[in-house]
């Protein structure tokens, strides 16, 4: 790691405004990416287990059928007498029936043997039976019922459905003015870094959490300096806002409907680290100012759906003997995607959020882009 990423730490004084952070962060990402691929330990190749039933007896029987078929066709084309044509045809059909019977029995015996001797729970056998091993990507939506629609066209149709272009009503009139924020300390970053789970799919930068953990161990002050520079300018770097998206078909849903797909966005891992550190700052301020209602169960530490259901049932038990009760359930469809950012910032203003939080959220939302891989 030390050899592949020399000279990481730049002086903090070299940054005078938020735009100067972007090229440095992009260069840093490129350096870490190169280091990651230089130090990558390649797994030894394993030969895939394939289900095969073909054997020498089948080959001999198939060749015999082919020879008899050619003889039968030759007699027909040469105008041989009827008895010879019928005789050669009967011999060919009899041998073909024997070959088909042998083929089916051989397949069955080979499959039974494969299943009995296979001990990998969710490996090749599972993928084969449930068609998970196929490399074909199927998108069932077909805009305008056009039979000539390409995969790219179908994916663009899904992208427009899930990520529509902002309307004029969504334009946010906000001018960020840098606000003060307490700098992060090493203990906070260590807590976030140590909680990262390796093996998660990376975003467009192709760098996973394990690499950033290695960089942090290599130079903790550098990572601390990097985070505090972003917070000092209340800025979320632009290249960390770009997401790679792919679509998963929900189980049992109609593949012809856009609502049957679940978009999954893969974001750069450095951006996720900065997000979590920002969340630490945000939660501290919310707790100090008692902003969140005590009955808010979602996205809160120590709260859960199970606890919400338990408290609801207890409330019903207590009040039911003496009061009439009614339960109203409201589910807002695509709540995050349909949020009006102007309304959000007016809400933040009404609760007296400091400039740092408003600025950071503004840059977090501004100019977000999603990309999809259309190589099939």
Automatic annotation (TrEMBL):
SUPFAM superfamilies reported for this sequence: DNA/RNA polymerases (SSF56672)
Superkingdom, natural source: Eukaryota
Region Disordered: start-end pairs: 1-20
GO biological process annotation, one example: DNA biosynthetic process
A Pfam family reported for this protein in Swiss-Prot or TrEMBL: RVT_1
Polar residues biased stretches: 1-15
Occurrences of domain Reverse transcriptase (ranges): 229-376
Signal sequence, start to end: none
InterPro entries xrefs: DNA/RNA_pol_sf, RT_dom
TM spans (from-to): none
Protein name: Reverse transcriptase domain-containing protein
Gene name tied to this protein: R1A1-elementORF2_797
